[in-house]
Design a protein that fits this description.
Number of helices: 0
Order of helices and strands: EEEEEEEEEEEEEEE
Shape: globular
Oligomer: single chain
Number of strands: 15
Largest sheet: 10 strands, antiparallel
């Protein structure tokens, strides 16, 4: 089981914001608004903390080396952290997971730089990547563990990137 974990140097820095949020240092962002979720590309992007009839609750802006995570406080300000890999002196164990992004692959609609995912229920989700019809998108999640006192302790997790992979049905191993 230990082969599932890798060791990596990683550090986090606490941050706070009250105005718009600079995201151009990141590749993608998952924005949790009071009226829905939006997944966007971050090229040269300032993210407003409010829009017509909605306000930003939480954001995760990420690329393969780092993630900005901010959450809204009751006073309207934001607090969070930047998790940076291959920085600092702290060695942590990591475990990678791939979560299937919702949608029926047979219904993928690709435009120039985005893909509209949908299912029969009528809900739609736009990803800022191209996912060919019949292919499945996954989001890579990195889990960080410390091994203080001889026990594994989950201390953080973050989004890393999107991947296009074959979706395989679950099978019990016997």
């Amino acid at each position: 089981m230990a082969e599932m974990f890798k060791t990596i140097k990683s550090k986090d820095e606490p941050i706070s914001r009250s105005e718009s949020i600079e995201l151009s240092d990141y590749k993608y962002a998952v924005c949790y608004w009071s009226d829905g979720v939006e997944i966007v590309s971050c090229e040269e992007m300032q993210l407003p903390t409010s829009r017509e009839n909605a306000f930003l609750l939480e954001v995760r802006a990420f690329d393969t080396n780092k993630e900005l995570y901010l959450t809204r406080l009751p006073d309207g300000n934001y607090i969070g952290r930047v998790r940076m890999d291959e920085k600092g002196d702290t060695e942590l164990l990591i475990y990678e997971e791939y979560h299937k992004v919702w949608g029926d692959p047979a219904k993928n609609q690709v435009s120039e730089t985005n893909t509209l995912l949908s299912e029969d229920r009528g809900i739609e989700l736009t990803l800022p990547i191209e996912v060919e019809k019949g292919k499945t998108a996954f989001i890579q999640v990195r889990n960080y563990f410390s091994k203080e006192g001889g026990d594994l302790k989950l201390i953080d997790w973050r989004f890393v990137t999107f991947k296009i992979m074959e979706a395989k049905p679950y099978q019990d191993s016997e």
